[in-house]
Amino acid sequence: MTSRDRLLTAMRGGTPDRVPVAPFTMGRISADSPIGEELIRETDILLDIGSGADPFLGSAAVIRREDTPDGTTVVYETPLGPLTRRIRRTSITSATVEFPFKTLEDVERYLAIPYAPPPVDLTAYRAWRDRIGNAGFVMVGLGNAVCVPADWFSPEDFALAWAEAPDLMVKLVATASERLIAYVDRLCEAGVDGFRIVGGEYVTVQLGHRAFAALIEPFDRPLIETMHRHGAIAYYHNHGRVMRFMQELASLGMDALDPLEAPPWGDVADLGEARRLAGDRLCFVGNLDDMEIVNALPEDEVVAIARERLRQAGPTAFILGGTASGTYTEHGARNFIAMARMAAGG
Fold first, then answer.
1. Nearest alpha carbon to residue 201 among 220, 184, 185, 187
2. Can you tell me the distance from the alpha carbon of 305 to that of 69, in angstroms, rounded to the nearest whole number?
3. Cβ neighbour number for residue 281 with a 10 Å cutoff
4. Model confidence at 326, in pLDDT bands (50, 70, 90)?
5. CB within 8 A of 305, min separation 6: which ones?
6. What would the pLDDT profile of 244-255 be if each residue is shown by its tens digit?
């Protein structure tokens, strides 16, 4: 099998010629370097490429940006008054220090912004798909509808808004979902055959089961059904402790779920027990920590841990990978290569 065939077989609930070993993105490795070329050749790499547009705000929104040496201010014009986001940058990282939604009234300001569907631009996606060919699988990465309140409120205000105004939150997420599904339809028609959906963890980590039933199930299920109607893979990302949500996640109908973090970072201590909860069809991806295991431990220790993961998971509907951080270095890349050789019987 090619890597693409191997990955697609596992994601569709089948048994490939061997369990795929899949780094998530190129990490900090240049694809043009010798180790980058070896990584692509020896493993079954998964790439997540942005679609180049915002399906939630669309193309009609009026947005003003002001950049300074230490940050960026973004002002979103609305018929009911502006919304402001401030981002602070350091030499190491950046973070939002002021969120656009500060009150519940700000949600209505957002909903009043004129909307027009964004253009579809798959230049980057097609370039990577052409480059990778059958040596891996390239997906379009996108946030689900709950990413709108989760990204526009601060984490504290996001939780408070759900507690104080659940109907308004549902209204906002429903609007975002309608726009997102229409956008995904257009991406599929343009040739996208795989999507990686992020955002579920905002609910499983911060809000709980009642919010999952109100903000995830009614919107992510039709999103996944839209992808499947076009024959595309629906691959779902959900950090954090997922065992108590495993049956609810699996019921959404996704093809694959990452990263299934093991303790102490997550709660998937036994892939066999996770399988019992999720059923046989859902493909598990991950269960190794990128930074604390793959990128930190010597090769023999990493391979021994990986061999145990393969024993727990079995050969069907499983992709051995990391925690989808995309931050591993050359040491991690060499360990991914060693794991792929071990999975192939080497």
1. 220
2. 45
3. 14
4. confident
5. 288, 293, 297
6. 999 999 999 999
